Amino acid sequence: MIAKVLTLGTKATWWAAKRTARGYRTETSIALGLLGAAITANEAYKAKQRATAMCGKIVVVMGGSRGLGLEIARQFGLGGGHLVLVSRNEEELRNALGKLQAEGAIPNGAAAHIVVADVSRQEDCERAIASAMERFGRVDVLINCAAVMQVAPFEDMTTEAFHKAMDINFFGALYAIQAVVPHMLQRGSGNIVNIASVGGKIAVPHMLPYVASKFALVGFSEGLHAELRHKGIRVTTVCPGLMRTGAESGVKFAGNAEKEYAWFKFGAEAPLVSISARAAARKIFAATVAGKAEITITPQAWLGARAVGLAPNFSQQFAAAVNHLGLPAANGNRDTTTGAEIEAKQ
Predict the structure, then answer these.
(1) Per the record, GO CC terms (predicted)?
(2) What is the helix (H) or strand (E) element at residue 82, kind and residue range?
(3) Residue 260 near residue 328 (C-beta atoms within 8 A)
């Protein structure tokens, strides 16, 4: 009798446990479903916010006539921003504006403005910001994207190459920021986006003027973020890795120019390690909307920058090996030629 009762009790316990487990699984499934729906709804809400975050904003793009600058302008235009494109070449500016209008990147009701200016000249940068202020009454977003690059061994670089890189890549950004920050502080809001480079994190051989200027820009941009963050101004430092922008045609090469161009072009066009300018611009747009302090674009660039920080001695030894075994030796030629000129000869 006792055994029978124990058997019945065991069966009842098992049945109750099974029923509870089924109920638990059902409740868990419902909870997980609700959680998934909430996450999906939240992401949809965030996506809607991102899509409209720049609507009506006044966006100044320094160096916005071609390459990455033009792609960034396209993303902000599609986001509803009123664009101010700044470059020293008026024809390129007008062509860029025409492309954006033809592609619908400047929607109906949105306005666009172009300013011819040399960013290496402080008075030109001040005039560009003043022109945007006169046209629209304010500047909400400043994007510093103008840059120059020269590729050659250090022995084949001139002092002028370093001056030019600093004047455009670093001081050009500084001049524009100095001109716009007082207005942003007065309003208590604004975004500043500095397009630096992974070359501002990793010292790449044969690109020392560019590297020096981008290291300067990264340090300045990070420090500026710390100073302006609690005054309502978001500063975003962007460090792209290799990008397929077609910019190699305008890059200047010295030393064994043809060989320098060959390795540079190979890296810039390699699909597995580089990113398209349009994809990079989308990431920059999203980082600006989110108010991120910094973004490194491409996994390879992110890993490379972290490797330098974690293992600086090994990283420098590796760079030295690449320079010795894989890059052209100096030959005393300091005369420069552009990638387009090299292509024309081939």
Answers:
(1) membrane
(2) strand 82-87
(3) yes
Q: Which of 24, 45, 175, 210 is catalytic?
A: 210
Q: What is the pLDDT of residues 155-179, one digit of tens each?
A: 999 999 999 999 999 999 999 999 9
pLDDT in tens, 173-192: 999 999 999 999 999 999 99
Distance (Å, whole) CA 326 – CA 322: 5
CATH 2.40.37.20 at 56-345, yes or no: no
- Angle ∠(45,48,51) on CA atoms, nearest 5: 150
In contact, 188 and 139? CB cutoff 8 Å: no
CB 234 within 8 A of CB 291: yes
Helix (H, G, I), strand (E, B) or coil at 98: helix
Tokens for 212? 């020096």
By three-state DSSP, how is residue 51 classified? helix
Task: Please answer whether residues 93 and 65 qualify as being in contact, where contact means their C-beta atoms are separated by less than 8 angstroms.
Answer: yes
Instruction: Please name the residue that has the structure tokens 């020096």.
Output: 212
3-state secondary structure of 178: helix
- Determine if the pTM surpasses 0.70: yes
Of the candidates 227, 166, 175, which has an alpha carbon nearest to the alpha carbon of residue 62? 175
Q: Which of 170, 191, 84 is nearest to 128 (CA)?
A: 84
Residue 210: active-site member? yes
Rounded to whole angstroms, how far apart are CA atoms 236 and 106?
24
Tokens of 104: 């619908």
Q: Which amino acid is at 296?
A: T
Q: Taking each helix axis from N to C terminus, what angle separates 2-52 and 277-290, rounded to the nearest 10 degrees?
A: 100
